[in-house]
User: What shape does this take?
Amino acid sequence: MGRQEYTAAGEPPKTGIPGSRASSGPALALVQFTCPGAVLIAGRQNLLQAQNDPGNRSETYKLPKYIVRGHVQDEKGNPIGGAAIRIGQEIVYTNADGDFFVRQKKPGVLAFEVALPEFLNEATFEVVSAPATAVAAPDATAPDLLVVLGPASTNKPR
Assistant: This one.
């Protein structure tokens, strides 16, 4: 159905959805309406309130408080989109700017792995540097992780 960006607390959406508003949080959240009644919410937004049914009923969605975030780039500093990162038990993908994040309900240390076979990017890479673990922390204090990839050697399978 489409995507809708929400800005900082109390500001209306950029392309208005009647009866919806964002609140509580300085960064934007991405809301994707996939089919009637199904909404995918992701981002740094802490709370989204939407009135999306004929009965004008409000629903509140609270996003998990803790986040793991970072960036994937090549050795020259260019972002790599479509990279797959396994954080704990979840796989997340980088956007076109090489950024990724996943929200967690609890703080703590999680396993971190570059999932090369899961990449959406058609190029083949090998890991130059990546952390072995990630820390889920509050948004304000969560570190930005850096993953550096290089072109895969011709004699190594992806």
